[in-house]
Each structure stands twice: as structure tokens, then as C-alpha cells.
Amino acid sequence: MRSRSFTGATSAGSNDAEEVSYCTDSCSVVIFGETGAGKSSLINLIAKTEAAPTSPDAMGCTAGIKEYVHDISIQNKILKVKLLDTVGLNEGSEGTVPAEEGRKVLKKLFQKRMGQDAINLIMYCVQGKKQGPQGIKALCRNYEICKSEVQGRIPIVLVVTGLENMKTEMEEWWKNNERFISEHSMTFAGHACITTLTDDAMLKGRADQSYHAVCKLIEECRTRKGDGPKRIVLFGEAGAGKSSVVNLMAGQEVAVTSNDMQRCTLHWKDHTIHFGGESYTVFDTVGLEEPQLGLSGYLDSVENVYRLIRELDHQGGIDLLLFCIRAGRLNHTIQSNYRLFHEFLCEKKIPIVLVFTHLERELRMEDWWERQQSTFEKTYGIRVADHACITAANKLDGRHKDLYEESRVMVRALVEKYTTDEQKSSWTGGNGRFVLFMRKLKQLLPEPLDLKKKDIVSRLIQRCSLSPDVAQQLADMIKQVQ
Question: Mapping DSSP to helix (H, G, I), strand (E, B) and coil, where does residue 388 land?
Fold first, then answer.
């Protein structure tokens, strides 16, 4: 798993202060973690003052949610930061706040503030010197508490404290523990390895470095404020390796891979993944299958398409299409899926990238595309922004293991290239998009369907919770012959 490490911020009290222009932007940061992790000390590091009381032992000193507002100067602008210090977790029954109560307070904070769009960043503060089974268990448990509430809507960064006495660079902690973090399904939008000790002259260099790293984490959040994760629709036939591609990009197992996965047309599941300092929501979607769907399959797709378009609308549209194709499995369904998603769902407005899987046996994976490119362009009329020839099989050894890592780098690079902030999504959904899509889906089928209006209405009412009037109207529009 990759996470971006940050350095470089300017103190508001520096000699360059007269060149700083005041910025009205603000950023709210929730800091959470185990008792004794250094949350209050982290606030004092950012504030450059003893604003928050600290405790020399592991009993904890924060009994509730406390807010501290501080200005930091970054990129020649002043940013107003609201820091929310939370109760320490895992204090036990004798602590300032019992463990169970502490978790309830944190969950309530997330629910309330997220409902008001009042959290921009979550900092998970951990003590870098804490080792052993107990430390590992707490690290994972506390992460899951936060992840279950946030569900990818707010970036989570890791701040590792207590590293002032490391013989090597503090960043070495991340290098030593990155694999463990990935294996335990923890993903972070960024990290900083720091010390919060600011009163030791011998540690001034590391304290300054720590201040800059933490401020940069906050700035990175602010510049992405309100954008949320980039949205990727990953589609293709069942068995093409879509879920394996999700795991390849994520750097860990986030999607279940199975030969028995649900093969219902346009069935989808979303996964939030992180890499390169960005968050992505990947909609793993089953395309058309061979043989083509019949009446029952079409009616199932009514619900799937309606919910997919509604969710994409809610999240802000589509930024990228990834068309996953199993190399060697070429048929005219490929052309149908290309048209269904690129033309009908996105009106050719969203970049599309082909991802060819199961190429681990090729001496050079790119050779496959060089042999097949004309087939895609001349036979199927498929033209795309880019492509990747990869292996998503992660259980192989030797040369194949290197190919897997090479494939990860390749796919991630393409995703980053085609989801840049300069390429804002122009996609719009709504009921009009739903109706058009279902009409076009009918046209792709080799045989006309004996489609009854009452069947469509029933699906929309029972499965999509639409009112009878709206369901009737949409069914009429879908039934219309263009």
C-alpha cells in the first residue's frame, strides 16, 4: 500500500509573514487515537504553543471533545484550522473516560459532524514505539471504528508520534510497517512520521520537520476539500478479473474474488481505495454476458441501472471508465459493452481505458495488444484513450510476482493520468439518463423482448422505492419506440 509522505510548510510566525495573504478558507481536523498516543501534544505542535493540556502518563487528559482554532501559513496563505481533540481510546474501566464510552463519543462526533459536512480530515494518531500483540490489536480496532463510520467520505491520514530517538530518519517507521498496514486492510490518504517534543534543543530539526509534515497533510486535505473520491466505473464480463483489478490498484484485498460471483447484468458493488494521496470509489460492474440476457435479465438490470445512476449522481458523476477484458476471450459482447457504457451511459464524454488481464504467460505483456489492436479498432470499432496489458494474479511466484507489481504501477499511473483535477467530469445522470440507457440496452439485444409495462412498473416500485406515478411515467418512456 502506498501513502504519500509530506514535508514542507511555512510557520505563520516566520520572517516571510509580511508576504502572506490572508485566506478565508478553513479546515476542520478530527484527531483520534489511543490514550497516550500524543493527540494533545500533536495539537500543541501545530499551534506552536501549549494550548492543549498533556499528560506524562497513559491515563489520558482529554475528558471530552475539545476544539482549538489556529492559523497556519502555507503556500503564502493563512489557513484557519479547527482541531478537534477527542477522548483517548482503550483507557479501560479506570480511565478518565471508560473505553466503551470513549468509542461512543467518537462515533457520535463523526455522525454529527459528517451530517453537517463539518469534517475535512481525520488524523489517526498512533504511538510509534508501541509494539507487540496488544499494540497491533488496538491499531487495527481503532482504525475499524473510524472506517466504519466514515466509509470513504473523508480522507484518513496516519500520524505516527514518538519517533524522536530513531537512529535513522523518522520516515523509516513507515517503510518498516507499510506491509503490515496493508496486510491488515488499513488504507490511508497520507502519513507523517514525527516527534511532538518541541522543548528539546537537540531535537529542533526533527520538531521543525514534524511541524512541516503535519501542516502539509492538512493543506493536502484543504486543496481537495469538497471533491470527495474520484469515481471510476470498472466494467466487463464476469470472470474478466474486475475484482482482482480493484485489489491490484488498492494494494490489498478489498474486493472478494470468486468464480461464483453474481452474474446478474449490471449488478455492481462499490469499493473505496486509496493510493498516491488520492481516494477513488470504484464501481465494480457486471456488463453484458454471453449468451445475451433475456426478459428476466433485462428486468433485473432495471433495478441495477437505476440504483447505479442514482448513486453516481449522488457522488458527483463519473471520472473514468475502465473496461476490463480477459485476453483471449474476444467476442461481439465486447463491442456491446463498449457501446453500452461509453456511448449510452457516458455519451463519449468520459475517458475510457482498456485493461487486458490474464497476460502473465506472455513473454512481454504488451505484445498481446500489438497483435490485437487492429481487431479492436477495425472489427469492433473500439477507440479508447489508453490501455494496459497486465496480470492481476497475485498468488504466483518468481517472474510473475514482478509482473504483478509492474501491472499495479501501470494501472495506477493510467488512473492518475485520466482523473486529474483538470479533467472535471461532465457526466449528468437523472431519470432521463436512466430511461435512455434502458432503451439503448433493449436495442443491443439480438431478439426483441416481450416487455410489459406492468413488469417494469413493479420493479421500479418494489425494488427502487419509486412512487407509482413516477414508476408509470418512466415505464412509459422506456417502452416508447425511438
Answer: strand
Q: Are strands 230-236 and 386-389 parallel, antiparallel or unpaired?
A: unpaired
One DSSP character per residue, 84-153 reads: EE-PPB---TTSSS-HHHHHHHHHHHHHHHHHTT---EEEEEEETT--HHHHHHHHHHHHHHHHHHHTTS
Q: For residue 473, give the C-alpha cell.
A: 411515467
**3-class DSSP string for 247-271:** HHHHCCCCCCCCCCCCCCCCCEEEE
How many percent of the chain have pLDDT more than 70? 82
| Chain CA centroid to CA 190, Å | 12
220: nearest Cα among 467, 9, 363 = 9
Cα separation values, 25 from 22, 68, 74, Å: 9, 16, 12
- Taking the whole predicted model, whether its pTM rises above 0.90 is answered as no
Could you tell me which residues come within 8 angstroms of residue 343 by beta carbon, excluding any fewer than 6 positions away? Answer: 440
Q: List, in sequence order, every residue forming a beta bridge with 79; answer none if it has no partner.
A: 72
- Tell me how far apart the alpha carbons of residues 113 and 459 are, in angstroms, rounded to a whole number: 36
Separation CA 409–CA 413 (nearest Å): 6
Partners of residue 21 on adjacent β-strands: 77
d(CA 182, CA 428): 35
Contact, 281 vs 229, CB < 8 A? yes
Write down the pLDDT at residue 395: 76
Q: Could you tell me the maximum CA-CA distance found in the chain, to the nearest angstrom?
A: 81
Of 111, 99, 190, which is closest to residue 142 (Cα–Cα)?
99
Rounded to 5°, angle at Cα 200 from 67 and 7: 65
Rounded (to 5) percent helix, strand, coil in the chain = 40, 20, 40
pLDDT for 311-330, tens place per residue?
888 787 899 999 999 998 88
Instruction: Name which residue leads in pLDDT, 386 or 201.
Output: 386
